[in-house]
Design brief:
By secondary structure, this protein is α/β, with parallel strands linked by helices. It is built from five helices and six strands. The relative contact order is 0.13.
Length: about 200
């Protein structure tokens, strides 16, 4: 095993203080031969049609010491795609992960001109003996407003705390609480178009 000095055993003792990365985006059709191994090693996030990057989230959590954090730049499809339901459930479970921050840049062509990219940045902490955070810092920056030269200021100005209760296995909607409350009210009182 690499970095043996960082591990006492594989039961959660030891591990890294931080993991930073940009997991590869490899469509599920291209990883068919290794899916049984991925399912066996990472059952918490496995889905038969998950992109490879989903498994990197589980590996990061395994690699951290309690209290350690990982931060990934990753495709934002995991926020809503059906194949990432298990991943979202893992990140929403305060016993297994503490969501610290998410910034969704949408269809951000300003970062990667000529590339069809949907970047997001996510930061997660492996639980320790303390209390889990009650909120995560969230920002969703529309692509038309994105200015890479002022990115730090933009994220700071547009972020807001979102309660842990807003995160579950279901698709994540990164909107301020008043918008979420309005959407819930509309769902309760309205009639869906399909009806």
């Amino acid at each position: 095993m690499a970095f043996p000095n960082r591990w006492k055993d594989l039961t959660g003792e030891g591990g890294f203080d931080a993991v930073v990365g940009n997991p590869p985006y490899v469509r599920q059709e291209k990883i068919k031969p290794i899916k049984p191994a991925l399912e066996a090693r990472y059952p918490a996030v496995h889905d038969g049609v998950a992109d490879l990057y989903v498994y990197f989230f589980a590996r990061a959590l395994q690699s951290l010491r309690p209290g350690g954090r990982f931060a990934y730049v990753v495709n934002n499809k995991w926020l809503k795609a059906d194949y990432a339901g298990n991943l979202r459930a893992l990140l929403a479970d305060a016993d297994r992960a503490w969501l610290i921050a998410i910034t969704d840049f949408g269809h951000a062509k300003a970062f990667f001109p000529g590339v069809d990219a949907f970047p997001s940045v996510v930061c997660v902490q492996k639980p320790d003996a303390g209390a889990p955070p009650e909120t995560a810092q969230v920002a969703a920056i529309p692509r038309d407003l994105l200015t890479p030269e002022a990115l730090t200021r933009q994220v700071a100005a547009l972020r807001f705390p979102l309660p842990r209760a807003a995160f579950s296995r279901s698709a994540w909607v990164l909107e301020p609480p008043p918008v979420l409350a309005l959407m819930a009210k509309l769902r309760e009182g309205g009639v869906p178009l399909k009806d």
